[in-house]
Amino acid sequence: MNLTGRQGFEALFNNAAIGIITVDVKGDIVLVNQFALKQFGYNNVDELIGKKIEILIPQRYKEKHVEHRDRYYGHNPHSRPMGTGMDLFAIKKDGTEFPVEVSLSVYNTLDGMFSIAFVSDITIRKKSESALIQLNADLEEKVKERTQSLEEALEKEKELNELKSRFVSMASHEFRTPLSTVLSSTYLLAQYAKTEDQPKREKHIQRIVSSVNLLTDILNDFLSVGKIEEGKIQVRFTEIDIKETISALVTELKTIVKPGQDIIYEHSGANKVLLDLALVKHIVLNLVSNAIKFSPENSPVYISTVNEDNTLLLSIKDKGLGISPEDQQHLFERFFRGANVTNIQGTGLGLHIVAKYVELMNGTITFNSTLGEGTEFIIKVDKTQK
Length: 386
Description:
By secondary structure, the chain is α+β, with helices and mostly antiparallel strands. It folds into three domains: 5-121, Beta-Lactamase (2-Layer Sandwich); 127-229, Helix Hairpins (Orthogonal Bundle); 238-382, 2-Layer Sandwich (Heat Shock Protein 90), CATH 3.30.565.10. It has ten helices and 13 strands. It has helices at residues 5-15, 34-40, 59-74, 123-174, 176-189, 198-229, 242-253, 277-293, 325-328, 350-360, and strands spanning 19-24, 29-32, 80-81, 88-91, 97-109, 112-121, 238-241, 262-269, 272-275, 300-308, 311-318, 363-370, 374-382. A hairpin with a 3-residue loop joins β12 and β13 (374-382). The protein is rod-shaped, with a radius of gyration of 43 Å.
């Protein structure tokens, strides 16, 4: 059947698969097709004919739309997409909002100027776009996470290579003296074959023992750093007698003090604390050994423990070399050694390990130091009293 003229227009208008709304220059709706009625949830055209077009626009946009409509008719109206680059929304009879695309067309008749709005519901497309945007965001996040993981792995590898490099450098320097001592003392031992040479033999045996102990300490420090880096240090909190533990360590450490040096220990508060015994021993031995090593003869080393209000404070204070302000900011870094102790044997790992052990027991370590006057380390661990 050949449809022409008004009959053809009505067929196209009413059967179009897009919402079509015709509006006059006053903004009144004069025609609505069946597809538009379904889009907006109305049952018949009488509910819309004669109403302002703003009835189909959400409240928050109505005022602006009136301005846009008046401007459109007043400035050379022509066919164009509506709201280019903007998100447009329409509102159904029941108040439900939905995203739309609108194309405008203008025509003139003897009755005046009219505009036709072609309205497309783009809800499904918007959902697809949102899903695609979310998918892209998720992919970007995964790429970011994997990139970060790769960067962290590369940084770990870099740190490991640096650790190995520094160990080789440190080992070649620190191992040389004790190994030379062992070699020379072993050679000299062979020369003392007579009974009356026993004191000389004992002297060189002690030198060998001390050198081997030094090598063992260096290796233990390096192994401890490796375990810390790999997260293999297991903290075991047990009830210990802090006063008894440190008193025993003081007795042990008095065998290495310099002439005239003394270790003075004081304790107040409860004796029982919940800590890792092995870590506590390592911390105290390291800090007190450093205090002895970096202090002159005839100078005291002070140890103090205060266990009150569920907090343990451990202080180790000396009157030794002290630490310069420049060195203080690097004190707990691996392999760091102060500029004023480079002539004293050490790996630069001890304080790094101490700080990590304190951290593993949920404590903090701070220090006060003045160059040439001495240093005090203060360790605080909460919730230790049982």
